[in-house]
Amino acid sequence: MIGNRRKRAIVSVSLGMLMAYSVTAISDIRGYDPRMLERGKIVFQENCEVCHGQNAEGTVKEWHKPDAQGQYPPPPLNGTAHTWHHSIGALFHTIRNGTISVGGNMPARKGTLSDNEILSVIVWLTSLWPDEIYRAWMQQNQDG
Ligand code: HEC
Predict the structure, then answer these.
(1) Which of 52, 77, 95 has the most ligand 1 atoms within 8 A of CB, as the residue to mutate?
(2) How far apart are CA 111 and CA 54, in angstroms?
(3) CB atoms within 10 A of CB 95
(4) Is-contact 121 114, C-beta < 8 A?
(5) Residue 102's closest CA among 111, 113, 90, 120?
(6) Which of 42, 51, 53 minimizes the C-alpha distance to 116?
(7) CA distance 44 to 141
(8) I want to staple 75 with a disulfide (CB 3.0 to 4.6 A). Which of 41, 63, 95, 133 is the partner?
(9) Residues enclosing ligand 1, CB less than 6 A?
(10) What is the pLDDT of residue 142?
(11) What integer pLDDT is reported at residue 13 of this predicted model?
(12) Would you state the pLDDT for residue 32?
């Protein structure tokens, strides 16, 4: 979990850049394009696994507890934690910009990952989620 202030900062950013994707992507991103799934998995292995675990299961059991410096460990992204509470736009923004600028520990990826690679990694992550979690997330995205 990320602190409320930080979460607001992440969520409140403009989603304009996503508009090009959202119409097709949000309709059912898990079934969107098998090549994106494959690409997303590779992008994850190369850029994210070291902190978030091989299958996005997290690397720290007590991921919801901040350390002595008030920093949160990398959470699981496999549907067992809070990731699905964030809209696709918020996830995109977090992955693109990282969390260092808002006091966290995750490096930014803009400049190293293309928008398409970032979207691919989101597609792959959602493919790990249980159906009911995925459905709830889709519903939230559609509700805006
Ligand atoms: C250096 C370690 C590190 C790397 C590498 C990393 N992350 Fe993170 N990530 C974190 C930490 C730590 C957090 C928790 C927020 C914070 O305090 O920084 C986080 C949070 C997140 C969140 C928000 C999750 C939630 O439930 O609120 C997402 C999504 C995420 N990371 C995706 C990724 C993706 C995708 C990649 C690869 C492109 C990646 N991360 C690479 C450390 C990392």
Answers:
(1) 52
(2) 24
(3) 24
(4) no
(5) 90
(6) 42
(7) 23
(8) 63
(9) 2, 47-48, 50-52, 71-75, 77, 81-83, 86, 91, 94-95, 99, 104-107, 109, 121
(10) 80
(11) 38
(12) 64
Q: Are 2 and 72 in contact (CB under 8 A)?
A: yes
Predicted local confidence at residue 29, as pLDDT: 73
Who contacts 6 (Cβ-Cβ below 8 Å, separation ≥6)? 99, 102, 103, 104
Burial of 12 per CB tally in 10 Å (0-12, 13-18, 19+): exposed
> One-letter amino acid identity for 35?
R
Q: Which amino acid is at 30?
A: R
Question: What's the pLDDT tens digit per position in 8-46?
Answer: 444 433 344 454 454 444 556 776 678 889 999 999 999
Length reported for the chain: 144
* Sequence-ordered list of residues with C-beta below 8 angstroms from that of 86, at least 6 positions apart, any chain: 10, 11, 94
**CA distances (Å), origin 4, targets 24, 48, 110, 117:** 31, 23, 24, 28
